[in-house]
Write a structure and sequence with these properties.
With about 250 residues, the chain is α+β, with helices and mostly antiparallel strands. About 20% of the residues lie in helices and about 40% in strands. The protein starts with a strand and ends with a strand. The relative contact order is 0.19.
Length: about 250
Amino acid sequence: MVKKILILIVVAVGLSSMAMYETTKVEGSKGISGTYEPIVVLELFTSQGCSSCPPADILLDKAKKQYPDNVFALSYHVDYWNYIGWEDPFSNPQFSRKQREYNTKFRYSGNYTPEMVVNGREHFVGSNAGKLSSKIKEYQKANSENKVVLGEATRQDREIDFQYHIEGDLTGKLMRAVLVLDERTTVVKRGENRNRTLKNSNIVVKEHYIPLKSKEGQGSVQIPTWVKTSEKLRLVVLVENSALDITGAAKTAI
């Protein structure tokens, strides 16, 4: 069963209006217009404390490996499952707030795990393989509004410095620099996944928003102290508009 954290707010919207909204949302994604090559950004909100999440974690990693070029896999570990006895080492309250912002946009009444968000435009249960496959195919047919070109990315102690060039309209948009840990294995001792060994991948360990004052420049993102120097990292750079839609993306290994 999908795990849900419900917000106790009475809403005056019935199931029929929710269904109407879902239909409008999907049809709107098909109408995305742009000039540049398609991108598919998958943001999975997950937790080691949630027994429904491991299948979604595996599914996200499979999607990244099946579509290595234009699929961007990001795994955000939320902190609201920590109360049941296991503190997810990758959890961050910032990621829980990020999920709430998305669900406010989607007019969804609360956070849940596993939740998959595609290009910041729509969401569904993250372990739904059929839905994920259809959405990847759908968004691979829709050109993006921006093109992101990453130049040299260098690691200096606990910081990643990089250069970028962005094509397309930047009005009202931000750049999001996301640092991703390739994978790590954890022995979970408590909570719903107690006594299980979980291999998490595509783990977001840090993200930093950068105002876009020009189409090219340089940025940086800090490496958390708990990330080992031997671990494989990847930098993902996203362009995002004021509606939280992702309009461009690029990635590079560190």
